[in-house]
Amino acid sequence: MSENKMDRVGRLVASGQAKDLDWILCTLPENIFYFSGFRTLFYTRFVGILVPVKEKREPVLIVSFIDRKIVEEKFWSPHWFREVALWGPTPAETYKTPWDALKAYLRPGIALGVDAIQYDFYEQLLEAFPGLRAINVQNDILRLRVIKDEDEIGRVRKAFSLTEKVMAMIPNWLQRPLTEAELAAEIYRAARLEGAEEAFYPVLVSCGPKMLAFHSPALPRPIKENELVRVAIGFQVEGYGSDMVRTFCKGRLPEGVSPFKEAYFEAHDAVIEMLKPGVRSSSLLKKVEEIYRKRGVVKNWLNNIGHGIALSIHELPRIAGTDDSLIEENMLLAIEPMITCPPHGAIAHCDGVRITARGCELLSQKLKDITVC
């Protein structure tokens, strides 16, 4: 394992030692990938990693026989664990079930850290290992993942670069009549052709009042002239993703939108200017509130500025509400202090940033206006 990868597992072990754990079992796909490098497109069969806390031995990747070639050939997302326990029904597998694999390492009465397990699996754990104590370590893992290493930063930077390239194609597509769904299809196709592994989240296209249904799908609704269009896209590259939002308009901006637009970009610029190690998220929230209150649009603000991003779309810190997180070097954030402007929709431009020693580095080109096509 490289030094970065060893450090990830080492920090997980240290967090487990602080809780007097014997082993840690991770079954969430993003945690499996973060600590082992292993990925599959289907997690319907048991996949997990076991990390010893007290014993001096290698961590173990437990994988179904159906993913044998991903494990052995390493042609996609190569893992870095030295010990792999394959389970399945063929003679080639040492273990016939995932429980056989787990029983080769775990024992009754241990303290087992878990990231996320369903209740039925928890009951089966207790049955298989009487006296076992399951301790939630997901919050500890999320905190471990807050500060990104150079490998992660490089992958997220690639994801934002690809996403920005696709976003730049949208004004040309909007020159012809399209529905939300048709524009979403063009975006997805272009991203795959540019090298995206997959959409990081569903391509979101909304126009007019539907923009206020923020997480609604792109529908077969015509994109009209002189109407705001919100496009939110993120794409996955080498397991890591991006988050970018832009507002477009075919024709002329609707009357009354400009004051909201100006307020938004002032707040967005202020957050970017303030971001540096040592700043607290509460200070960022206070600054945005001051700007929106001065502009008379504070009631249109959702009391949200942004969130961490890397392996999943919404990571820590969640800069919203009463959050008071400390901003630290090498955090990766998506910044979007969105405001609504009914009945025309909302104003939001989301940009990625890396926190540096003295400020922040933009991972996407910061625009200061709505793109009128």
Can you characterise this structure?
The protein is α+β, with helices and mostly antiparallel strands. It has 2 domains: 142 residues, Creatine Amidinohydrolase, Chain A, domain 1 (3-Layer(aba) Sandwich); 223 residues, Creatine Amidinohydrolase. The protein is built from 11 helices and 19 strands. It has a 6-stranded mixed sheet. A hairpin with a 4-residue loop joins β17 and β18. The longest helix has 18 residues. The protein is globular and about 70 Å long. The model has no long low-confidence stretch (mean pLDDT 95).
What is the topological layout?
Layout (H helix, E strand, L loop, with lengths): L2 H16 L4 E4 L2 H8 L11 E5 L7 E5 L3 H6 L9 E5 L10 H6 L7 E4 L4 H10 L4 E4 L1 H7 L5 H18 L2 H4 L6 H15 L3 E2 L4 E4 L20 E6 L1 E2 L7 E6 L8 H17 L6 H15 L8 E5 L6 E6 L11 E4 L3 E2 L5 E2 L3 E5 L4 E3 L8 E2 L1
Parallel strand pairs: 1-5, 3-4, 5-6, 11-19
Antiparallel strand pairs: 1-2, 2-3, 7-10, 8-9, 9-11, 12-13, 12-14, 14-17, 15-16, 17-18
Name a few traits of the molecule.
alpha+beta, Creatine Amidinohydrolase, 2 domains, six-stranded mixed beta sheet, five-stranded antiparallel beta sheet, 19 strands
Write a compact overview of the structure shown:
The protein contains eleven helices and 19 strands.
> Do you know the CATH topology of the largest domain?
Creatine Amidinohydrolase
What spatial order of strands do you see in the largest sheet?
Answer: 4-3-2-1-5-6
Task: Give the terminus-to-terminus CA distance.
Answer: 49 Å
Q: Quick one: overall form?
A: globular
Query: Biggest β-sheet: count, sense, barrel?
Result: 6 strands, mixed
Number of strands: 19
What is the CATH class name of the largest domain? Alpha Beta
Whole-number total of structural domains: 2
SSE order: HEHEEHEHEHEHHHHEEEEEHHEEEEEEEE
Structural class: alpha+beta
> If classified by CATH, what would the architecture of the largest domain be?
Alpha-Beta Complex
Q: CATH superfamily of the largest domain, called what?
A: Creatinase/methionine aminopeptidase superfamily
Overall pLDDT score? 95
Percent in strands: 15-25%
Give start-end ranges of low-pLDDT stretches: none
Secondary structure: helix percent: 25-40%
